[in-house]
Design a protein that fits this description.
The complex is a heterodimer of chains A (about 120) and B (about 110). With about 120 residues, chain A is an all-beta fold. Helix content of chain A is about 0%, strand content about 55%. Chain A has no helices and eleven strands. In chain A, the strands form two sheets. In chain A, strands 2, 4, 5, 6, 9, 10 and 11 form a seven-stranded mixed β-sheet that branches. Chain A has a four-stranded antiparallel β-sheet with strand order 1-3-8-7, with no helix packed on it. Chain B has about 110 residues and is mostly beta strands. In chain B, the strands form two sheets. In chain B, strands 2, 4, 5, 6, 8, 9 and 10 form a seven-stranded mixed β-sheet that branches. Chain B has a three-stranded antiparallel β-sheet with strand order 1-3-7, with no helix packed on it. Chain B is globular. The chains are: A mainly beta (about 120), B mainly beta (about 110). The interface between A and B is medium-sized, with 23 and 24 residues.
Chain lengths: ~120, ~110
């Protein structure tokens, strides 16, 4: 059974960089069948797609976040990571990592991790 | 950029009733790239429907999806107590992945 687990600091200061890692178990991220993505959800609000990465390293980012987002792969650790720079309180959210199938839908999700941006 | 608008915002129904949720796209989209998710409080979203009408693995047949073009529908034929949650539609197109704002199905 595939499992995804987000990890990283739960509190980040304004203007700093948010860094999260998603560890995948029960399957390899080094597969041409899947993309790997990040989605976030501010408290009490809806889902926002952040970006995806393919096993080849190709990335796709939400245009509204593109200037601040970097997603990368570490196939040796079966992990992928999210970096979001210059954060503000508006970046406070639960961050989910997920596997994407057939280019477009997310079939496995991590449990999510709350990141609060505050001084 | 395609915008997905879900309606109603909240649906108040009783167990056993039929739920009909709408997802409208700002322009015509491929039904192949339309999915629905269910999210319960404190949990990650769960994939229900992909390709507008195909149920994901393990999803009960009381959940069904339909639609094409700009109008898509998620129907729950008879609500079970565990079905009350927030539902999101999601679309892919032109290297952009977008979600609707969600419909909450609550117990009346």
């Amino acid at each position: 059974q595939l499992q995804l687990q987000e990890s990283g600091p739960g509190l980040v200061k304004p203007s700093e960089t948010l860094s999260l890692t998603c560890t995948v178990s029960g399957g390899s991220i080094n597969s041409n069948n899947y993309y790997w993505g990040w989605i976030r959800q501010p408290p009490g609000k809806g889902l926002e797609w952040i970006g995806n990465i393919y096993y080849s390293g190709s990335t796709y980012y939400n245009p509204s976040l593109k200037s601040r987002v970097t997603i990368s792969l570490d196939t040796s650790k079966n992990q992928f990571s999210l970096k979001l720079s210059s954060v503000t309180a508006a970046d406070t959210a639960v961050y989910y990592c997920a596997r994407m199938v057939s280019v477009y839908y997310f079939d496995y999700w991590g449990q999510g991790t709350l990141v609060t941006v505050s001084s | 950029e395609i915008v997905l608008t879900q309606s109603p915002g909240t649906l108040s129904l009783s167990p056993g009733e039929r739920a009909t949720l709408s997802c409208r796209a700002s322009q015509s989209v491929s039904s192949s790239y339309l999915a629905w998710y269910q999210q319960k409080p404190g949990q990650a979203p769960r994939l229900l429907i992909y390709g507008a009408s195909s149920r994901a693995t393990g999803i009960p047949d009381r959940f069904s999806g339909s639609g094409s073009g700009t109008e898509f529908t998620l129907t729950i034929s008879r609500l079970e107590p565990e079905d009350f949650a927030v539902f999101y539609c999601q679309h892919y197109g032109s290297s952009l992945w977008t979600f609707g704002q969600g419909t909450k199905v609550e117990i009346k």
